């Protein structure tokens, strides 16, 4: 029995396990621990592919398993958080009990992206649309911004159902938008080929120092905007 063949899949299952635990924490309104568990799941999500390439044991099973695990950690978990935010918000859209379930539009958008990612051959070196882990971190950070921020304006914005609906719809859209986004993978160890990634990481680090949890949505928005600017620059060449 080749043990190395099963290591990447085991790591993928740990990602799934982290996602399941995150959902339990969300149900208990422990959003901080849910955020950490999703971060841990994304960490394992990165390394399952790394070890699959390292051991040269990539397989169709691993690809499907990876998407199924991501569906929980980066699909169901952020959808549940949006549901919770709707539930705890003011009722601008009405008191209809169905309204909070609109948060699961994030889950539907994530599911469509993950299925499409498996058959899209263009996304080997970069991404088309926002990756589900990045979107998950964005959504999971919102209740933490509410918890740790003293800003009444932020409180008013993130408890407004119209704003939450806009975030939900934008999230589902950007996951599947035909927008090329750069990858953080390092292929050549030189400054010129990694300048964009280095700039992004440095600014992200500064934002984290300044704003802590509040930096997470800013970093994701910055990532998308930087990719769009980079695309425009490449077109002009």
From TrEMBL:
UniProt-annotated location(s): Membrane
GO annotation, biological process: phospholipid biosynthetic process
Membrane topology, as annotated: Multi-pass membrane protein
TM spans (from-to): 7-27, 33-55, 67-86, 98-115, 127-146, 152-175, 195-212
Keywords: Lipid biosynthesis, Lipid metabolism, Membrane, Phospholipid biosynthesis, Phospholipid metabolism, Transferase, Transmembrane, Transmembrane helix
Transmembrane recorded as keyword: yes
Lineage top rank: taxon: Bacteria
GO molecular function: phosphotransferase activity, for other substituted phosphate groups
Cellular component terms per the entry's GO annotation: membrane
Name of one Pfam family that matches: CDP-OH_P_transf
Signal sequence, start to end: none
UniProt KW Plastid keyword: no
Family of the protein in this entry: Belongs to the CDP-alcohol phosphatidyltransferase class-I family.
Entry protein name: Phosphatidylserine synthase
Organism expressing this protein natively: Flavobacterium panici
